[in-house]
Amino acid sequence: MNVIKDVTFEGTILNQVKKTIEFIETQVREHTFLGQHAQFVTKRDYPEFVIQEMTVNACCHRAYNI
User: Fold this and answer.
1) Which pTM value belongs to this model?
2) 1 to each of 13, 34, 36, 60, how far by Cα in Å?
3) Closest CA to 43 of 29, 64, 62, 55
């Protein structure tokens, strides 16, 4: 994965997690296609709960000694 943005989130841990999730959701690729009943369907590469879990795990397991 190539890093293309360097963004810093400040504030309380809860605010950092919330802002991080919001930012990551803007970066996730979406695919729109014509589904059943001739209606467009949009699916993302990663579901919302996966982004939330990934972000919270990264915060919980970060190394403070770095």
Assistant:
1) 0.72
2) 26, 29, 34, 22
3) 29
CA dihedral 45, 25, 63, 8 (to 10 degrees): 140
Between CA 36 and CA 50 the distance in angstroms is 26
Question: What would the pLDDT profile of 19-39 be if each residue is shown by its tens digit?
Answer: 999 999 998 899 999 998 889
Q: Do residues 63 and 46 make contact, with C-beta atoms less than 8 angstroms apart?
A: no
Instruction: Please work out, in degrees rounded to the nearest 5, the angle formed at the alpha carbon of residue 18 by the alpha carbons of 3 and 2.
Output: 5
Dist. CA 17–CA 53, nearest whole Å: 10
